[in-house]
Fold these 4 entries.
Entry 1:
Amino acid sequence: MLQRLIDLLHAFRDLVVLGACIVVSVLLLAANDNPQVKRIRSVAAVLLGTVQEPFRSVTAYFDLRTQNDILRRINVELSDEATQLREARLENARLRRLLELPHRIPYRLIAAEVVGKSVNLQRNTLVLNIGRLDGVEPLMPVINDQGLVGVVTDVSDRYAVVNILLNTEFRATGKVQRTRVDGIVGWDGNVVTFRNVARTMDVQVGDVVLTSEYSNTFPPDIRIGVVSLVEERPGSLFKSVTLTPGVDFVRLEEVFVVDAQPAEERTGLERRGAR
Amino acid sequence: MTPHVRYAIIAFVLFLVQMTFVPLIPVAGFTPDLLILWLVAVGVRRGRLEATLGGFLIGLLHDLTATQFLGLAALAKSITGFVAGSFYNENTAEQTLGSYRSVLIALFLSVLHNFLYYAILFQGVERSVLLATLVSTLGTSLYTTVVAILPMFWFSRRFRTEWAR
């Protein structure tokens, strides 16, 4: 009987071995959570890892280009984000300073962004992104937190052109804050001058110059600049005074248009008096 | 050196190559299974018994170092080895391995093995088990079949050299 069984198994040994392999495999599949099986697998994994280790550097080499591309893209994104954050921080600081202006100026202020600018010509101008539809009219003063910027000279529905302080056609009456000495502020194409100051008047380097009450265009007491040079020329009745503008025109981005137009009654009266 | 030891050494070398070098040459995410080619050679040359046992042992070794189910590769390779042994013919073994028939056998066995393997592996993981199984089976099998051309040329050359003697 036993011999017959052995003969039978021998005759079908292929199938018997296959069956045994399948049974063992299924048992192993069922024992996947067994701690001993896990222990054996972890040892095997460590051994294989030792063999695989030298090949990891090869894998890393093949991945270098991909990793490089990914890092470069991330770098661009982060740089862009950093630039935006820096820009936002600067804008925030500027706007905070500008927010203080309405409390100091007793006029309605119309906020504007500079969308065009020239600062290195004889007649420098700004273009603002507001116009007649926003209530802007010619001869309205333009200021920012640093002081006087210029005056509106031309207006369309949505844009306005401003003659800035650095324009040979620009004139404003000013006064020295410390001594109340009056003069005419202008641009000679090279520096900002404070003219018509008699030799006897007290003007010193460091004096602050403001807009004067004599102006029919600009509200008084708006900062124009600081005296940077005082010269007395032989044979001249006037001092030669040079100002450093308060406004940094190169970095100018936001301004306010002051809703203050010349009083027609005063202008007419002054014209008749001049005749 | 007995044939069994020689087969064991070749299997172990192929296993190491499979685990270290083969992952470096994926095509569309698929890699060839060199152990299937080993099973083809063992099955055609040695028959069902040895191919089944060889498949089981090499599968078990694979299972021990893989993160999948222990016993899955052993099961799939045991059955594949058994079927590989069906192509055994003592008189024509070298001719079979050196001809296009070995490539066709490799394709057939590879499809069988991968289908069994992935059909169980993807259970409960993939939403469409059948689709995932078919895609993985097709990709791995085709790549393995292409690689099977290399040993075919090697066996063909060896067979012609021995025949010329």
Entry 2:
Amino acid sequence: MINKLKINKLKEKLISRILFFCGVFSILITIGIIISLFSEAISFFLRPEVSIIKFFTGTNWRPLSSKVSSDNFGVLPLILGTMLIGIISAIISVPLGLGSAIFLSEYASEKTRDIIKPLIEILAGIPSVVYGYFALSFINPIIQTVFEDWFGLDVNFFNALSASMVLAIMIIPTVTSISEDAIRAVPGSLREGALSLGATKFEVITKVVLPAALSGIIAAFILAISRAVGETMAVTIAAGATPRMTFNPLNSVQTMTSFIVQVSFGDAPTGSVNGQSIFAVGATLFMITLLMNIASDFILNRYREEYE
Amino acid sequence: MTNNDKPKLSVKDFNLFYGKFQALRDVTIGIPENQITSIIGPSGCGKSTFLRSFNRMNDLIPSVHTSGKIELDNENIFETDVVELRQRVGMVFQRPNPFPKSIFENIAFGPRAHGVRDKLILSEIVEKSLRQSALWDEVKDQIHKSGLALSGGQQQRLCIARALAVEPEVILMDEPASALDPIATLKIEDLIQLLKVKYTIVIVTHNMQQAARASDFTLFFNMADDRAGYLVESGNTVDIFTNPKEHQTEQYISGRFG
């Protein structure tokens, strides 16, 4: 009897230990990543040929140039390229994602919803390489036809717009599911209250439901941008590798992630300026997405208190 | 009927189904104008469903279908525009449900939806509605604060003000005081008495004393063996409570079931 009790106790202890380890494991990995990322980034900034101020303010990014100088390590073109693509894809994906969220939660019947929702989620499961080549082989010809043939504008073969468009498609599921959650969280009693005053369904949605769900929708927007900013494969394939300060989405640009890929695929030796520059860029990207995720968490938490 | 006037709302052979389940059977009754009509009956007898038929709130549930007629001033409500119907027949719900907006915006919502844009007219409507719902003195200095910052009883009076702002003819109330404390409840009851001068009021209540105290006319619903609700009897509240015709009415009001 006593033996059995002891064994049971031991078992319980063991199980809780194992589960504790599982929980701690991912935290340890995160800490490890942060340490390796930032230690390399810091040793990059400590190099004599690099200046941290010029890194964050310089508008030239030529790390592979034969002349190693702090003037060639200005990260702004990469940040601008990243943000250009991130923002355009958010501008495309938010209306589409929000529209489908409104449709799913307010208009679709239970049956339609059960069919359409998994279909939208499939978009998130397509490998991003596939999206990259989809941009090159399908979206690009359309962009070229429209902007070059019809409007006579210069279109680079690799361009920010096609990358933004596939990114938008990739992040629609995120926007849809987060904003749908926010819309569904608005109590039905508010909809009934508005309907009972003689508001039309559209008025109820635009004047009561969406304002009440606004912070959740903003959070979806921020999370969508932060996903777009961190996306790598599709932009590397579609957007090109030309770091430059431009707001023209028809130009080829380089994002932070595609720079990292470019250098990683080349033969930059460990410990060289180039090898370390990707850690500095990576750390910068990490800080940007981290801040965005914190912002969206903060906004989401605030809106939980709004009704009741 | 208590008087010989034409009823404000008249219900004829009304049946309501949720899919195959019949929730209301063969209801025929007139609701007198400018009076307070209370609907009482045990849980599940369909009294809320019946109330929600008057402003076609049941339209929201896809499986609901009905037969028979409900007329508002001789007009079949199932043949009129539902938006217009709901402007004429307002509703106050069981739990206060103010919008997460300011007090002002809560009340201006209805008039805005019906095309009132002028700020001055809107402020007049807001003040008038708040006075009518006996809330003005309590909130006049914080009209731009959130409606959710008010107490439960104040929120419910805000919801009444919001319903009054679209100038309805009928106000439906679905157990409007059941989520409130006794003092807030009394305030709501007093308010309902004031409102009947201008409006026809239909109120569903679980509270027998409330029905006896606060209404002129009473409908008693019960559940048949197949769980369909039906109207057992109706009449002046005094008669129903002191001298019911039906045995089950007597049993219910004396608290023997329900």
Entry 3:
Amino acid sequence: MEDEKVEEKIRCLIEQARTTGKPTKRRRLVSGIPSLFQIIKTKEQADEFMEMLNRVFNKVP
Amino acid sequence: MANTFKINFDDVYDINTTSCEMRSASFDTELADGGKKKLMVEISDQAHELMPNVYNLAFGPLKANGKIDDKAQIKHRDYSKAFSTILLHARAYLANNPGHYLGIDGSNNSRAMLYYKIILDNFEYLSNYFNIGAVKYYVRITRLGKHQYENPFDFQDIKPDAVRITRDSPRYPEYLYNYFIFTNKQIAYQH
């Protein structure tokens, strides 16, 4: 279980973000393209990968 | 660099969230030489066009050109605190965006191995906050046999394979992954 202090920190960070009111600048700070984004090029690949992710994350450990 | 990392969301640097969508944040990490360095954490402002819920998280100091240097080798005074800060921001982002998958790229083999070690060493703690998956990439072999080394791989034909990391995941270096994916612990995952 999350402890209360951490949960409060998370709430504070979310609130801090809301109060900044500034959308992310359009300028990207990362120059490279993530490897996964380079590998998935077609809708079929993407659908297959998302199905895999759903299976992986829904599986009871 | 430290050999063990202890992730603890109660021991983090002050995070300055610089966008209302939580896509951008910064904090000052303490260096081994006593100085401080500003690290940026950025979550891609667009998901993959074919995978609308998959976002990428990158972190590092800014280079002279204003881009994040995700290969920078920084001597942190407290590596655990720096990584705890990055992961706490990721946790807050996912709490605010519960349907998202958040990926972290291992920018090279040693980084990927380091991230995997941190996840495994802190699995009991992290699993309170995240579901964690890992991805490997497999390349098709074009031919086997006498001439297999001339041009054996088709790098246009790569398949990703994802697994969920558990407390029983293998600890051997050969079980290396390329990409790590985090989701919010409390949600039902739908695509």
Entry 4:
Amino acid sequence: MDRQEDGIRSARPPAGDAPPTRRSTGPVPLPSAVRSGRPPTSAGVRPPWWTTSGFYIGLGVAGALAVFVALGRLGYYDIWFIVDNLSSGFGPLILSLEFTTYSFVIGISFAFGLGLVRAHPPKVGKHLARKGTRGRFSFLWRWPLYGFATGFVATVRGTPFLVQMNIVAISLAYVYPQFTFLGWNQFCWFGLLALTINTTGYQAEVFRGGIQSVEAGQIEGAKAVGLTRTQTFFRITLPQTFRLITLPLTNEWISNFKTATILSALTVEEVYYWSKETIAINDVHPIEGFVMLAIFYLLINVTLSRVVTYIEKVRRIPGLGTPIPEVSYTKRVLRGELPARARG
Amino acid sequence: MSSIHARGVRKSFGDLEVLRGVDLDVNPGEVLCIVGPSGSGKSTLLRCINLLITPDEGEIYLDNIALTDPHIRPEWVRQQIGMVFQQFNLFTHLSAKKNVMLALRHVKHLDRKKAEATAKAQLGRVGLADKLNAYPAQLSGGQQQRVAIARALAMDPKVILFDEPTSALDPESIQDVLAVMGRLGQEGMTMAVVTHEMGFAKEVADRVIFFDGGRVIEEGSPDEIFERAGHERTQSFMKKILR
């Protein structure tokens, strides 16, 4: 028997002159507003195909592919040129990844310190007021340090990377025009420095946000069992911070990866430089070069965010960090958790 | 068995005077209940006792040791005095067992085996022997609060302070937590309990303090405070709450 019909029937007032009281012990019918909603997928009831996420994802991918192929057929670009030349971009792509990752990893160590400083703004008069305590004069170094960190972050976030790069790298390259080290010329090294400075500023804010997101109750609980401030930081704050910043830090890596294209302005032969100079100008295939670039970036960034989501899921602690997204009906059918056909 | 004595404790936050000269005694092996309206400074008083808040003036003694002496490490004080919070404040990223173990390992410097044994024993004592590996988010409010009590007990404190331990719980969990606390009281633990559970206060408390406006208004046996309050303010509060 259909669930909905049953509900409607029993919701009607009983015939005859009997008082409209409900005597049966069966399920109370839901109000129609609730009943008209999508059936709960977790119960194994199959939703209409046009409501599943798989259908819409498929539609999106198919649409994008169709546009891609159609543009090729229209002569907008040469698909076979892309297929033939994609592999020539692997070298420059790896250089791009190197720039991104080196600057990101070096940046983490500095950003951690800056974020820590920024997460604990010094308070006016608080330290001097505690007579006879250790750290009474800490305002002497706390204020300048906090000021420096804040100014650094504001500058990095408030100016375009191209400008930062020109100021840092080009001025340094003027001073050291013949600098080569480990096979990289002066532009590579100073560009890496500029990129590191840039990502440090953004990462510092990620760390600050993460540290400040740890609930005050956690710190209070740690204090109450007798942990020192250092112990509290390393045993409580830091482990929770890392769970909270996984996603924003991934964002920052992706953002940094895309920012690295600007290094091409220094004639660093990374992947954007390759697509522009080699493919677009030398081979006279401008659109193909940038389409290849888009394919590279898209593949790497999508893969990375998928991997991070997966790691987050398997290493997840209940009640901390990003919640697990609901598994779609399509996926559960594919995994064999649900019957492909509706029951009944 | 230990005792706590507070003399003339004052604390203000900005212009707001929260504690206005509080004298308080928690005698050895005694269960002291502190009742009073919200915002009267009960929680601040408890936090002052284990130095989560530094009082502006006054002295607090644990047995004969002045805790307010600036040369005493607050960590040492908090190790001696357990605390249970309204919002439990369990470490979200650690399982119940590790919540209890953490301070044993890193404050008491026990080795892993001893800490684990103590944690298991304490969790068993509060009836959670089967929830050793559950994370706080997987436990009900009442279970979380019992883990918090086990965490405080594991440090073998001389006194335990309870800051409205049942205010965030559903009626059924309240009974579980109160049962654990009542058992502790019978075992002779020195306890100071800020609570709105008048039934618990009547049954378990040796002495009750009525607290309002940052001062101790009245103190006496549960009977005296709940039934024959002398002070007008106490009477009106009890009338409202014991309807």
